[in-house]
């Protein structure tokens, strides 16, 4: 039998993504030992009760001493604090990676706290659900999904390769990107859609009481799909918007211009403008189906 | 064996909704005979090939002579033309209903062409998929979904009751509403979500070539859910926006104000504003799940 890819994996923060990594890594035998470092006593207890980790707690020294791979899965706003907490306890030669939805801010906030003796390979699995916490995870979450890695120039190719092997073994395809480019792509594919969903659900929440009950009752006509997206973790999303400000503001601006153009077409009864627009958007749907990401 | 609810049902336009009615009505034995009146030769051929109707064609006189229930399932922009075409051929005592997504415009455009000898019960099943055409229908589409009826004051209660029985037998729950109120509720639950989805997918379509490929590749992070909604029938949606102009423009205005407020919070780094907003929107999701409409 071949030895596992990693001796010990330490998952920092045991939410939806890291608890799915725990399950997938165990299922595919990718680590001899899986531990989690989480400030929440309740999250640690849950992870132990679910049997997805071998040890759990809030003491970095104890949990990081043997860790060969450290996967940071906290909201991106906590990266500086995480760096300060884990930096002094990292084993020489260890690989530090993460699953944060923005990458520039992670490089900015986490990297300065890491010793020169460790390798840093930031990452972002393009997978998730609207549910949060260690109980929401499942081993198949990454199957057929992309994982974007954003290593800085000069990163040890061996470290990138080991992180690649981990994600590939869990079913993902790997894409290498620059952090800034990642943040621009995700601003449109993920951050704007979530902001729009949060906005429209908020608009509905502000309606008069009677109307709000009817919105819930008749939500199957389109609205409910937005409520699913807008049920995602509030802290995680607060941090994403605050840490990808420029790219998000730029794409909101484009979106608002486009919405205003359609609004104007509705006001002036421009049937052809509307029809042409609604036809063109079908092509992207077909492309997504063809790319097997539907 | 009891006799079916209707002798002959004539489905005017055989798209997703009417072809689902054909299947459900047949499955539950709700009509002795089901026919379709559709200007498209291809749609008629498909419906006959699928075996979901007993007769199909474009001659109103022949197809309406025996019809006890006429269900209009064309885009709402075609209602006046449909009224002109069917009006002179309707049997005395027949019930005319429809499945249009706006109701004021249907009353405005269809009713004037109907003789006094028929009953008019406008309706709108809150069900659908992003697919179009007679092949996209299925008998279970209305199961557990609401159907809104918007009869005008003075409508024969017996006619309302028969339409209610039809929808109930196909698995729906019935809600009676005034047409204007329907259009306001649907503007928020359906029309705005679709417009937003069409907008964001359009914004992505306008990106530079390379970026567009990446948007497709990494669409699983939120964007793809919008592309599904934005793949709906372009003619149908063009007509909805043009025929529910006031309610849609009013709700776009509210939405834009709310988006601008969140945009401002992102720009100024107002963490608490964002978090509070993102927390509140979870309540509506829970209410929809509780209402079994998720």
Question: Strands, helices and their partners?
Answer:
2 copies of one chain form a homodimer.
Chain A: E1 6-12, H1 16-27, E2 31-37, H2 41-50, E3 55-57, H3 60-64, E4 69-72, H4 79-86, E5 95-98, H5 104-110, E6 119-121, E7 123-125, E8 146-149, H6 157-169, E9 173-176, H7 179-205, H8 209-217, H9 223-229, H10 234-243, H11 245-267, H12 271-290
Parallel strand pairs in A: 1-2, 1-4, 2-3, 4-5, 5-6, 8-9
Antiparallel strand pairs in A: 7-8
The structure class of chain A reads alpha/beta
Number of helices of chain A: 12
- If you average the pLDDT of chain A, what whole number results? 95
Radius of gyration of chain A: 21 Å
CATH class of the largest domain in chain A: Alpha Beta
CATH architecture of the largest domain in chain A: 3-Layer(aba) Sandwich
Which topology of the largest domain in chain A does CATH recognise? Rossmann fold
- In what order do the strands lie side by side in the largest sheet of chain A? 3-2-1-4-5-6
Shape of chain A: elongated
Task: Specify the biggest β-sheet of chain A.
Answer: 6 strands, parallel
Structure description:
The structure is a homodimer of 294-residue chains. With 294 residues, chain A is α/β, with parallel strands linked by helices. Chain A has two domains: 6-177, 3-Layer(aba) Sandwich (Rossmann fold); 181-290, 6-phosphogluconate dehydrogenase C-terminal fold. Helices cover 51% and strands 13% of the residues of chain A. Chain A contains twelve helices and nine strands. Chain A has helices spanning 16-27, 41-50, 60-64, 79-86, 104-110, 157-169, 179-205, 209-217, 223-229, 234-243, 245-267, 271-290, and strands spanning 6-12, 31-37, 55-57, 69-72, 95-98, 119-121, 123-125, 146-149, 173-176. In chain A, the strands form two sheets. Chain A has a six-stranded parallel β-sheet. In chain A, helix 2 links the parallel strand 2 and strand 3. In chain A, helix 4 packs parallel to helix 5 and helix 7 (179-205) crosses helix 9 (223-229). Chain A is elongated, with a radius of gyration of 21 Å. Chains A and B meet through helix 7, helix 8, helix 9, helix 10 and helix 11 of A and helix 7, helix 8, helix 9, helix 10 and helix 11 of B.
